[in-house]
Design brief:
CATH architecture: 3-Layer(aba) Sandwich
Strand order of the largest sheet: 3-2-1-4-5-7-6
Largest sheet: 7 strands, mixed
Structural class: alpha/beta
Order of helices and strands: HHHHEEHEEHEHHEEH
Number of domains: 1
Oligomer: single chain
Helix content: 25-40%
Radius of gyration: 17 Å
Strand content: 15-25%
Mean pLDDT: 89
Shape: globular
Number of helices: 9
CATH topology: Rossmann fold
Low-confidence stretches: none
Length: 244
């Protein structure tokens, strides 16, 4: 554990490169830590099991994860995974996708795809698309959301779990973070190319009024006493009868 964490922490201290295409920056950042990625993130990326439980894709469903990384999130589906019609794991980082291929090579209903979340399109509309701690790492996150929604069948679901900070004056019923929280976390994560942003949640709620949202705080490895805000969001598009 100590050596594994040390390798990840070294990459985090170096940060994500500031120049080059996004795929190049991701490969440079995640390549040295890819084999140790999941062990460290188990203690950092909270809410993923809850997201998969809320999404609960029924048997035969077609599913896409954008920014899928190592494919770890499929494990949260348990026995349900084998019942799905198709799963596509889409990411730009070859080092993380190699881990995903190793993890899923025996799963005939899973396909690993190296592609951009802004441009990738499946052969046919799907039932479910989700982002797990990926939206904050996509510079054109609005484009990624637009593309994700365009993949869905009528009545399909979009799920997101990610870090965030609130608006200074959030909508009624939502959590308000203090000024220090809103200042600290975007600056802390920016070094590694992660951008917690109140606009993400605001946009999701506007795009998908039919949604479930829960807001939390969780501990961060090696930062005792600090708790980072994150949310779990599941929204549904209009069904065919509603859109018609």
């Amino acid at each position: 554990m100590a050596r594994s964490d040390a390798l990840v922490l070294l990459s985090l201290m170096r940060g994500q490169p500031r120049s080059g295409a996004l795929a190049e920056r991701l490969q440079a950042f995640y390549g040295p830590q890819a084999e140790h990625y999941d062990a460290f993130r188990e203690r950092l990326l909270h809410g993923r099991a809850e997201l998969m439980w809320q999404l609960a894709p029924p048997p035969g469903s077609s599913v896409i994860e954008l920014g899928a990384g190592t494919g770890r999130n499929l494990g949260f589906l348990g026995d349900r995974l084998a019942t799905l019609g198709s799963v596509e794991l889409v990411d730009l980082c070859p080092a993380l996708l190699e881990q995903a291929r190793r993890r899923t090579h025996r799963l005939r209903n899973v396909r690993v795809v190296e592609a951009d979340a802004l441009r990738y399109q499946p052969a046919a509309p799907v039932d479910l698309v989700y982002f797990s701690y990926a939206l904050t790492m996509i510079p054109d996150w609005e484009g990624a959301l637009t593309n994700a929604l365009s993949m869905l069948k009528p009545g399909g679901a979009l799920g997101v779990v990610d870090f965030y900070v609130s608006d200074p004056t959030p909508a009624p019923g939502l959590v308000r973070h203090g000024g220090m929280t809103r200042w600290f976390w975007p600056r802390w994560f920016a070094h590694d190319g992660v951008r917690p942003n109140p606009e993400h949640l605001r946009r999701l709620r506007a795009l998908l009024p039919d949604h479930q949202l829960t807001e939390y705080r969780a501990p961060v490895p090696y930062l005792p006493g600090l708790r980072v805000p994150y949310y779990v969001f599941v929204g549904r598009t209009l069904g065919a009868e509603q859109s018609g």
